[in-house]
Amino acid sequence: MSGTARAWARDLRLGFRLAVSGGAAAWMRTALSTLGVGLGVVVLLLAASVTSVTEARSDRADARYAAPAEVEPADDTFLLSEIQTEYRGDWISGRLIQPDAGRETVAEPPPGLDAFPAPGEMVVSPALARLLDSSDGALLADRLDYRRAGTIGDEGLVGSQDLDFYVGADDLTLGDDVFRAEGFGGMPASQERLPPALVLLVLVICVVLLMPVPVFVTTAVRFGGERRDRRLAALRLIGADRAATRRIAVGESLVGAGLGIVLGGLLFLLVRQLLAGISVRGTSAFAADIVPSPPLTVLALLAVPLLTVAVTLLALRSVAVEPLGVVRKSQDRPRRLGWRLVPALLGVALLVPLLGDFSGEGGLTSAQAVTAVVLLLSGSTALLPWLVERATARLRGGPVAWQLAIRRLQLSNGPAVRAISGIMVAVAGATALSMLFAGASEQQTSRTGADLDRAQAEAFVPTTDAEDSAALVDELRGTPGVERVLSYADVPAVPLSGDAASDAASIPLIVSDCRTLVELAEITDCAEGGVYAVPAPEEWGVTLPEPGTVLDLGPAPQGEEAARPVPWTVPASLTEADPRPNPAGWPVHGLLTTPAALGGEPPPHGDTRMILSADLTDPDTLELVRNAVWDLAPGGGAVRELTSTQVSDQFANIQTGLTIGAMGVLALIAGSMLVTTLEQLRERRQLLSTLVALGTRRTTLGASVLWQTAVPVVLGLGLASAVGVLLGAMLISAVSLPLGGWLAFLPMAGAGAGVIALVTLASLPFLWRLMRPDGLRTE
After folding, report:
1. Rounded to whole angstroms, how far apart are CA atoms 290 and 45?
2. Which of 243, 360, 367, 498 has its CA 20 to 30 A from that of 560?
3. pLDDT in tens, 651-682
4. Where does the ABC3 transporter permease C-terminal domain start and stop, copy by copy (predicted)?
């Protein structure tokens, strides 16, 4: 081994020993560094697990997919009908399943089931079982009142908190909603591509959620810097040169980094167990699926020690460690603005070519966008120390607490600035995201047309039976909270026009009483026996039948055998009526008629739709309506609460991912900031105790600590808001969306200030303990 290698080994080993056996102060520094690095490693490992989680969810969904097959019934085939219901905002997915060979079937049961459920039996997921057994699920238990026969295994679920069930049936027939299958597995791959705005949104979300992590890791590595410098000065006294002190400092910091990696791994194992019990907007994952990608894990675990070494060496460049216990800081020079602007200017330069030209295709433009966002966000943290120095340089006078705080910032604002760097990145990134979200939401959100002053919910059942429909309407009208129910039959009518009859387009036929028809069209003289023609928009290309046209009111639904025609002649009294906005938002056109015009006989096929005016402040009202509809048509009907807008599924999925990630990053921000604040207070323990011993009031010192936090926070949040607005405006322009959301920084800055305030308040008890007389002791 060469002399240089031996020197490195010796000095690194000494650094290791100082970190673990250097007394209480060294232990505390190592513990805080370990905790800070560990929190960062947890987030990195979770980020590295995203790919495995999405792949596992895709594989699980593929395994339980049943592909429709055009085959004859056999002992290895089964009929399947997929049904859904909603309960208090959560979607519950179910399947009615019926083996063609009954108990003699040799077909493989669904994944997670040992056997096909018998008719009337239900097998549920663990999460659904817990909900059904709880007091909150009482109304759902009334709806799904099948005999429970078991629990779906993990291999039959996409997520750990999925609300799924299988019900055995013996009355399924091939039709619109029922298909025959030979087995499970083989879901076709989706070819749907994200629009450019959503691609950019995903990229920015990834950057914003991960950018605070290296900031916190570098802050954790610098814990206890002043005490470390004094220890290194003592080592100079016994003969260590400057190069040796740097190697020793690196060895000492690597202990915290190494232990932080171990702690992060252990915390990751704990966190993934906790995540398995959480569902966010219906999305969850099994703990076994949260596995970091090996390449990304290696990259993250190598980046932490490398970052540790770089930060330690960079920090030592600003001090001169000399013998006799003296640490002389190099001559103070004003911070220079020039190089601090370089990252931000480079970020802007990379974004300018993308303005109005970002397509989301190709890895090069995506990498360019990601690099630009990283440079702009990191540039904001580089500007903050200069801004704080310039802002506090000329401040004079004021209360004692204010003077103590400002003087501390004038002498050394590095620790205070580092403490809020992470929150700055988060606020700037969140501001840009909010602006981009505002622009993308306009593109991904459409108006439903529902008139919430006239109706609040809509229901439908696949039947036109007069007695069943009337009984359901009567039950709904008696439901607590329901004020009015309008009901009509929606029937497909096909012109009987010779050989082309089977190819003719169907014409909607709406059958109801006059009270309902006047809500669907501008009808002023409605009377029993009346028939009204409501034209569709010209671009739809729908031609309404003339008087005397014969229509078939009984075309069989797809998959069912053709039935005998049910002819009906359009009467000569046909009257035209202008369309009126439907309370539920559905465009109504076609022929509107009263039952008397059809001879009082209901058509054999069609749906019954109901528009409800109800007070939905009580969540039970909507669930009682769903129960009534389910009783008439289990799984076949539907009830939905009306809304004025609806968001695309892709946009909703991205919002879900952002919510999950933001929760984790906010937890990291709060935890890391608390650790950083406690370390800063511990460094000043002797100084605080001395000031108290000299007569300074504790409240004055407490206020000074708050001011030391508040001044950089105000400046940092202001800078972060400006950078966030600039970044957001450029991102919006890149995907050619209308500029807007200029005040998006207000809630983001408020959230950042709230996190900082909570952390500061949480540190006050520790501050009071540090002011006790025993803080005067020193080693």
Report:
1. 9
2. 498
3. 666 666 666 666 666 666 666 667 667 766 76
4. 209-319, 664-772
Q: Is the pLDDT of residue 140 over 80?
A: yes
- Length of the chain (residues): 779
Rounded to an integer, what distance in angstroms lies between the CA atom of residue 605 and that of residue 624? 26
The phi and psi torsions of 590 (rounded to 5 degrees) equal 110, -150
- Round to whole Å and give the CA distance between 201 and 439: 10
303, 431, 476, 501 from 211: Cα distances, Å: 14, 14, 53, 64
Contact between 285 and 157 under an 8 Å Cβ cutoff? The reply is no
499 pLDDT band (50/70/90 cuts)? very low
Strands (E), 296-404: 319-322, 326-329
Both tokens assigned to 26: 């060294």
CA-to-CA distance for 578 and 572, rounded, in angstroms? 19
- Extract the tokens encoding 617: 């402040």
CA-based torsion, 769, 771, 776, 779: positive or negative: positive
Q: In the chain, where are the structural domains located?
A: 3-55+194-445+649-776, 67-181, 457-643
What angle, 0 to 180 degrees and rounded to 10, lies between the N-to-C axes of helices 649-683 and 745-770?
Answer: 30
φ, ψ of residue 265 in degrees (nearest 5): -65, -40
Contact 143, 172 (CB under 8 A): no
Place of tokens 């310039």: 390
As a whole number, the mean pLDDT across the chain is 80
Closest alpha carbon to 665 in 39, 201, 34: 39
Cβ(607)–Cβ(463) below 8 Å = yes
Sign of CA dihedral 189, 195, 199, 204: negative
Tens digit of pLDDT for each residue in 456-480?
899 989 876 778 888 898 999 999 9
- Cα–Cα distances (Å) from 278 to 193, 271, 499, 584, 663, in that order, read 29, 11, 59, 34, 12
pTM of the model: 0.73
**Per-residue model confidence as pLDDT tens digits over 569-580:** 888 888 889 888
Q: Distance of alpha carbon 438 from its chain centroid, rounded?
A: 16
Residues 673, 755: contact at Cβ < 8 Å? yes
What pLDDT, in 10s, does the model give residues 108-129? 999 999 999 999 999 999 999 9
Residue 326 has pLDDT above 50, yes or no: no
φ, ψ (nearest 5 deg) of residue 66: -110, 120
Residue 616: name the closest of 88, 109, 214, 167 by CA.
Answer: 88
Sequence-separated (6 or more) residues with CB below 8 Å from residue 195: 360, 443, 444, 650
Tell me the pLDDT tens digit for each residue of 646-658: 665 556 666 666 6
- Look at the alpha carbons of 725, 728, 730, 733 in this order and tell me if their dihedral is positive or negative: negative
Q: Summarize the confidence of residues 393-401 as an average pLDDT.
A: 82
- Angstrom distances, CA of residue 445 to CA of 198, 645, 648, 649: 13, 7, 6, 10
Q: Which of 46, 37, 249 is nearest to 676 (CA)?
A: 37
DSSP states of 237-305: HTT--HHHHHHHHHHHHHHHHHHHHHHHHHHHHHHHHHHTT--BTTB---GGG----HHHHHHHHHHHH
Show the tokens assigned to 580: 């009126």
